[in-house]
Amino acid sequence: MIFDWNYALGILPQFAPALWITLQATAAGMLLALTLGLVLALLRRCDVAWVSWLTAGVIEFVRSTPLLVQIYFLFYVLPETGMRLSAFATGTLALGVHYAAYCAEVYRAGLDAVPRGQWDAAAALNLGPLRTLWRIIVPQAVARVVPALGNYLVAMFKDTPLLSAITVVELLQTAKMIGAESFRYVEALTLVGVFFLLLSLGAAALIRVVEGRLQVAHA
Amino acid sequence: MPYAELAATLSSGLLVTVQVTAGAALLAVVMAVIAGLARSSRNPLVRWPAATYVEIFRGTSALVQLFWIYFVLPRFGIDIGAIAAAVAALGLNAGAYGAEVVRGAIRAVPQGQRDAAVALNLSPARTLFRVIWPQAVPAMLPPAGNLAIELLKNSALVSLIAVSELTFTAQLLRTSTLQTTEIFTLVLLAYFALALCITAGMRRVERRWKIAA
């Protein structure tokens, strides 16, 4: 069997809604990861020892267990606790929580890299702790870690096919459905691979541009 | 079903997870060393195939790669079965990330070491194996440990091509007992324990290389 270009071109439009779902899941998941990650990173630095340790434990646990099992866990266990979410919402939640643990470590490095003098200067200017954090420390920390966060955005994008395991009709699920209907997996699955390759190479190039801009801004 | 019985059933899946992960790790190390060295080569004919391999496997999703190897390759006459497809996909994927680790570590060895080897009239092969490689390995180990944990986590994906590892066993058990919360809590703890074992093991290896260095 060889690759049939006409057939591949014919099934191409069927991927459009799936691509949209994939991009939505990535965007919503990343928004959650960025926010929750920052909260986790700040809790990790909390002066109360048990809060810091508990947060560190949660981050380590989420980072060390498979995303697929976490997706299943949320998909099957959340309804038992009375929370009814759609498959898409559950999957996006899982992506967000999983990558929040990674983002937390990135933020932590960024926060550690802000010079001690910035804290001292904020204290000398009589800024409150919250104001110091939000106006002085966090903006400097985030600027440093944008490229690292960008890499996790690409990684999360590449993890969206896992949502097919809980019936979300994203790119991979669409390819499987086309394959099951026509018994032609070659074109559909190859197209999905090409989509991911093009989009992640594009995203990687974009990150390099942003990285370059940020370095200029710092200099 | 009580916890002990659930755990006993899951342990058969755990064994398969360990085997698949170990097999894939072995393949990943081989691929990482070959592709990493090839990408460090000055000859573009050696460098380009390695770069293509790395970009393709890092640029697409691990699950898509797994499905491609399992569903598409048989249509081209390469039918290797589910377990071999699992090991191949996981190993090739991790190997591509590992190749970048190898390349980075080799590049980080100071140029002076190469110059000194030339001055001592060592052959290129001898320079690589006796001078560059031993100095590059300690820098590779910490990221390699992280990749090993990523590989362990990715091994859950092979449940989707019906390899009866831990996650697949959990799914079967879930449909037969409906004790979802207990089963998936046990499974998450099992993966966490395996990840801790990898971390501990890698620390021992790192210590050994530090003494040797």
General form of chain B: flat
Mean pLDDT over the residues of chain A? 92
Which pair has the most extensive contact? A-B, 37 and 38 residues
Radius of gyration of chain A: 21 Å
Helix content of chain B: over 70%
**CATH first level of chain B:** Mainly Alpha
Helix-strand topology string of chain A: HHHHHHHHH
Major sheet attributes of chain B? none
C-alpha-based Rg of chain B, rounded: 20 Å
Query: For the terminal residues of chain B, how far apart are their CA atoms?
Result: 53 Å
Percent range of helical residues of chain A: over 70%
CATH architecture of chain B: Orthogonal Bundle
CATH architecture of chain A: Orthogonal Bundle
> Unreliable segments of chain A (pLDDT under 50, ≥5 consecutive)?
none
Q: Strand pairing plus helix content of chain B: what structural class? A: mainly alpha
Nearest-integer average pLDDT of chain B: 94
In total, how many domains does the architecture of chain B comprise?
Answer: 1
- The CATH superfamily of chain A is MetI-like
Output the number of helix runs of chain B.
8
